[in-house]
Amino acid sequence: MSINSAPPQEKILAAAEVMFASKRFHEVLMDDIALGAGVGKGTIYRYFKNKEELYAALLKDASTELMKLIENAVEVEVSCKNKLIVILETSINLFDARPHLFDLILHAEAFQRTSVEFPWQETRWNVIQLVESLFKQAEDQKEFIIQNPKESSLILLGGLRAIIRFGQKPRQKHLCNDIVHHFLNGFSKSLPLAT
Question: How far apart (Å, rounded) are the C-alpha atoms in residues 41 and 45?
C-alpha cells in the first residue's frame, strides 16, 4: 500500500517517524507532521491527544510489529540454531525497511524519564528472554550448549544492535547464518604453531 492510499493514522505515524528520528522531540511540530502526512493538523488530534501520545504510539506500533514478525518466523523453524538465525534476520529486515526506527529508539532512550516505562523496553526484554530460552532449549535437546545463557543472549543481541546500526549495506546474503555460526562455534581460529 502506498503512503498516499494509506489510512490517515498510518500516514501520520509514517510522517512522525521521519520527523522524530531526524529532530529532537521539542523541535518536532505537529504542523510539520501534518504537512508530511498530507493531512490537516486537526486530523492528527482525532487520533492522538498530544505529541507524547503520538511518539509512544510510534514505538508501540514498531515493537508490536517486530514481536509478531519474530514469533511468526520462529514458529516455522525446528532447530534452535535456525530460530536464532530468523530472529536476527527478522530484526535486521525490519530496521532496514524502517530506516528511521533505530534513531527514533535512540532518541527515546536518551530522553526517557526514569519513572516512565520506555515503550520499546517490553519488546526488548521479550526478545532477550526468547533467545535465553532458546539457549536452554538447545541444551535440553542436545543441539548445543551455551554457557551463561542470560549474558550470552545480551551479547548476541548487543552485537545485532551494532550490526543494525553500523553494519555494511547491502547486507551479505548469509549474514545472520554466519553470525549464529560464529557465535556458537567461536569467532577466532587457531594460528598455526610457529616452528
Answer: 7
> pLDDT by residue for the chain (195 residues), tens digit each?
445 678 999 999 999 999 988 888 889 999 999 999 999 999 999 999 999 899 889 999 999 999 999 999 999 999 999 999 999 999 999 999 998 899 888 888 776 655 556 778 889 999 999 999 999 999 999 999 999 999 999 999 999 999 999 999 999 999 999 999 999 999 887 778 776
C-alpha cell recorded at residue 106: 535512540
Q: What is the CATH code of the structural domain delimited by 58-185?
A: 1.10.357.10
The answer to whether the CB of 174 falls within 8 A of the CB of 194 is: no
Distances (CA, A) of 40 to 8, 11, 49, 57: 10, 11, 14, 19
CATH class entry, domain 1-48? mainly alpha
Residues near 153 by Cβ (< 8 Å), separated by ≥ 6?
128, 129, 131, 132, 135
Place of cell 538447545: 138
> Domain boundaries in the chain?
1-48, 58-185
Distances (CA, A) of 28 to 31, 32, 34: 9, 7, 11
